[in-house]
What does this fold into?
Amino acid sequence: MQPKTLYDKLWDSHVVQERDDGSALIYIDRHIIHEVTSPQAFEGLRLAGRKPWRVDSILATPDHNVPTTEDERASGLEGIADPVSLIQVKTLDDNCDEYGIVEFKINDPRQGIVHIIGPETGACLPGMTVVCGDSHTATNGALGALAHGIGTSEVEHVLATQCLVSKKMKNMLVEVNGTLGPGVTPKDVILAIIGKIGTDGANGHALEFGGDVFRNMSMEGRMTVCNMAIEAGARAGMVAVDDTTIEYVRGRTYAPKGEDWERAVASWRNLHSDPGAKFDRVVTLRAEDIEPQVSWGTSPEMVGPVGSTVPDPAAETDANKREGIVRALEYMGLEPGQPIKSIKIDRVFIGSCTNARIEDMRAAAQVLKGRRVADSVKQAMVVPGSGAVKAQAEAEGLDKIFLEAGLEWREPGCSMCLAMNADRLGAGEHCASTSNRNFEGRQGYGGRTHLVSPAMAAAAAVAGHFVDVREFVAGEPA
Amino acid sequence: MKSFTQHTGLVAPMDRANVDTDMIIPKQFLKSIKRTGFGKNLFDELRYLDEGQPDQDCTGRPLNPDFELNHSRYQGASILLTRSNFGCGSSREHAPWALDDYGFRCLIAPSFADIFYNNCFKNGILPVVLSEEEVETLFQQMYANEGYQLAVDLAAQTVTTPDGQVFTFEIDNFRKHCLLEGLDDIGLTLEQSDAIKAYEARRREEAPWLFDALTP
Ligand code: SF4
It folds into this structure.
């Protein structure tokens, strides 16, 4: 038999029907929905007189619009001050109630960011196809699943038919071998990859992450990496199933039990690329070359090691790229050649579907323990990715560490990752953020985002500017 | 679904690479639960000098005089000429909804982000991929000629300039077919209900845990 990639296997097992024109009908096992991209899909369904095909495949939760302060959340829906946000969240509730869809509502202890609750509850499993009207659905690929974002028309299509009309993507492998240095985290790995291949580097490809670095990485870390596959242009990112995957899934609420569990594990063991499988493109990096990263521009590819300097557009030979750098530096208020470490920060955001899992909380707390947020920093907040993450962090006393260090400890949601709720940057403010996009205005009108790991964000909070967390943990910084 | 066959229209520039969907339609406008009305907020942060709010009347807002789409020569444009990786970032279909509502029927770039590309077809917008050089040529001709129009023919897969130069582009057969006919793809898929049910029955045997109902 022809050796297959992990993506080939996932694709093949979900083909309902191949069509003459090169497209295929692909079956969807799990459909996750949130309040922003689903209302128009339900409306379309109703207008056409259709019904959801398999209600029991759907899991819903509101995340983008929900407020994250304790006070606001205490009053549930009434706590959503913005009437437009409120309508959106209510619309999700109404749609779920009408069709009998399982929804973790605003103050359900299981509520959280869609991409965090899927793996955490076992609703998303290895070998599944998972879709959601949200590009960071790729996070679930860490389980050895085929997971990707879709538009609202496709949300409607999946609701109505349990299928998607797709064309097979190409296969791409990013291999990172070696051992990561201390203080270098999964976030730094994915930022370094995007820095190398660019934000369109994996367009048209399903991206598998392979090599020692991912084999030795925790599930949380793999999720951080797969989450940002989309920032490299890939709709889907994935990591092969191994013992780490299986131990992670074992015992989760919706994971198979008993005899089903044994059968499932036996089938999941095959979810890896076969030796000799053909990739259309392979990119390799050495773990030893990766340093803690900080983005300086307005695209995730505008990123570099913390010890480096902001680039000089004059040194760029490609005219379009040069103009992009000039525009980015102007928006970010940075000078060519300025050391990254000299960038002062106004706010710190530790959260988002990229970095709001328990390990991220621990990594930030480790740096913050016994330290204080610099006086020059206006606000530093930690927003756990889900109710379960919040409870676990509190059980470990991490919330105390954050509060003692002068950070805010919030309720779960997307929060300042895209500032659809009240958490946002002011114009011109610099933010050390553990989120995934540094686009213009993403975290608030005129706001300036620097993408970093949780440990780097925590260190920047204490110093008031970017610092190398490796020096920081060793000794007291100036 | 809206169809696209042929279109001739005024060309406007978005002369930068990596235009993301946050830029095409900023997040505050995603709070709408409708599919329409996004055109006035297309490229909101570039287009206006103040911060836009949902449901706001935009007629009195200060326009950014440096933003090309605000220039009088590009009013009424229906073809957007842009650079590589247009539509990257969020999967929000509000981006094509906003472009469509503004009046764009066709986008031309050296490359598009995958999800955005797909979303365009669902809304009767044709994204045309030409080479970097061809796009550069079109930019130069457009800047040099006020009122510059292009003729786009999906069936023939061509873009024709005012002086008769013809550029051809590639497109998947299935996407082309659906767009030409304006097909309702949900209806088409539902015609295959038996195949879907047969697949489900088989998978239920092989992997029953995939069908364990989620419980509240
Ligand atoms: S945390 Fe940010 S990137 Fe993730 S789903 Fe929410 S808004 Fe999107």
Observations:
- The two ends of chain B are 35 Å apart (CA to CA).
- The mean pLDDT of chain B is 96.
